[in-house]
């Protein structure tokens, strides 16, 4: 009896360790998939900022910006970046004439038919033969694309569509596709209400994706040979729709399908659309497991079974700890690569926007240098904490330290994650710089109060932030919308409750935002309220 019990205990222990290792495969894959989508979203944000600040941008300028980003080489699965103009039926002939005057004699909005609102593709780079098939296509004519565009327009946030067949597809190697939309509005700032956003919508910056190419890129960046160890199935479900399979790996052996011993499933929020990543173990993964310790116990008998059970349990524990350590090191390496790429993207965006805002070269260089120093301070704090998070209070205090008693701050000490910390430092730096040049800190009587607090309970807790200037000269709404204003109008995290509010009141500027606390906090550090 003792031998049978020992056999079962060791077998169960081996299976539990194997299940955890298999779960980590899904964790690694899902984390890399989300990092890829975030990187693609940053490309869209850069193009959106360019279009928002340069309403009359020429096609050549749009192409030059995206060539500098090198989307074809750096972002596998991304078919391009485009702009779709939104207009009514009465404006259709005018738009077609404008595009034809640029040399595209056969350009027309398609498909034919009268519709109350159109959103036709007028820019799309790279302008390859595949992407030329989508030139002029009215995305509002197709229900799945239309639903995503309406959600993006009404919320002002990046939004992923459901599964579609891209217009770029041909008769060979057809893949499931989806699109990511970011709305563009008239004026220097996005309207604060849903009704206002509907009225002011100008168009959409968007990217089409081929899911097969996207997943191939994700798998190529992961060190583990996932395809030989797991069969992957991915499905998506936009709000109000049923699950639809968008990706499935081919069977690795002729007798598939089969019942796998290990399965795992994770649900991801991809810009408002739920993606479910399911994995089932292959024969190769199951064959890699060794059950010899269990059979040794059975053969060894009652006396040896106790001794061997202890030895096997010890070996399994060491192997378990080694697997966890290797997984953590692998995740840390990929996280570091991700941080470096994100940081370079942020620096590139700061440089490009600081140098094209219409200022003299010397002033532009000085502004760029100040923004870079603010970002560097955040990086120093992150490196000292091994990129696990950084104190929000310390970041705020460092930015306001030069102003002494004229600037006060109050709020709980929250450990911010790396991406949010970088955005927060740039926002506070921009507010302080504007206050010194035009606001409360430009005169002796002016004061600045920075305050943040937490509301709600449990998973629904939100972080509220307020910057308030008093005692300064009268302030006015900026006449132009440069990099600084564009930065202040963007949410500092994904999933923000609403866009930030900027008010130019009689006694000074007031800036506020509200975001879910969970999107701000670092995973491995707790907040102290």
Write structural notes for this entry.
- The protein contains 16 helices and 16 strands.
- The protein folds into 2 domains: 322 residues, 2-Layer Sandwich (Beta-Lactamase), CATH 3.30.450.350; 179 residues, 2-Layer Sandwich (Heat Shock Protein 90), CATH 3.30.565.
- Helices cover 47% and strands 20% of the residues.
- The termini are far apart.
- With 529 residues, it is α+β, with helices and mostly antiparallel strands.
- The C terminus is likely disordered.
- The chain is flat, with a radius of gyration of 27 Å.
CATH architecture of the largest domain: 2-Layer Sandwich
Q: Given the C-alpha coordinates, what overall shape results? A: flat
The end-to-end span amounts to 55 Å
CATH superfamily of the largest domain: CHASE domain
Sheet-strand content, in percent, reads 15-25%
Predict the CATH topology of the largest domain: Beta-Lactamase
Rg, nearest Å: 27 Å
Tally of strands? 16
**Category by helix and strand content:** alpha+beta
Determine the number of helices (DSSP H or I, runs of at least 4 residues): 16
* Main β sheet profile: 5 strands, antiparallel
Runs in which pLDDT lies below 50 for 5 or more consecutive residues are 525-529
Number of domains: 2
**Largest beta sheet: strand ordering:** 2-1-5-4-3
CATH class of the largest domain: Alpha Beta
- Overall mean confidence score, pLDDT: 82
| Proportion in helices | 40-55%
Question: What is the topological layout?
Answer:
Elements: H1 2-53, H2 59-69, H3 71-74, E1 81-88, H4 92-100, E2 117-125, H5 129-132, H6 143-155, E3 159-160, E4 177-185, H7 194-200, E5 201-210, H8 211-220, H9 226-229, E6 230-237, E7 244-248, E8 263-270, E9 273-281, H10 283-287, H11 292-354, H12 361-384, E10 390-391, H13 392-400, E11 407-410, E12 415-416, H14 418-437, E13 447-455, E14 462-470, H15 483-489, E15 501-505, E16 508-516, H16 517-520
